[in-house]
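Database export, one record per block. Field names are fixed; values are copied verbatim from the stored entry.
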Amino acid sequence: MTNLELARFARHYGARVKVCRPYRAQTKGKVERPIRYLRESFLYGRTFVSDADLNAQVLTWLDTVANVRVHGTTGWVPAERFATVEQPTLQPLPTSPYRTGLVALPARRDAPLAASPVPSVVVERRSLQDYAALGVGGAS
């Protein structure tokens, strides 16, 4: 998607594009920090046998951990803040989707499935201090 196309897409959905300078974590913390939280609070130490398993586990985690804790910066429970502050400001989506001109081809239903099973993946939990001790990144 080109910059002009991105601007058209954002305008269609009533969104604004905010450009941040590269390598400036101070300007992107609200976007980047939740990824670290997801990785450290949810992913590390778990095993997923399929996409469906990952989706089921993350939905449970959202309902029992992420959306019910008191957020350290805002002081709000995320689910309560969304329902009270953010959801009332949401606008309905446009009646027609944004048209890109791209064409999606239907998947072949008669194609044979891959013979190999989906492997399990175990993500080991490590603290940032472990990486700092190795000289990789910094503990923050």
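Remark 1: Residues 25 and 33 are 9 Å apart (CA to CA).
Remark 2: The chain has a mean pLDDT of 82.
End of record.
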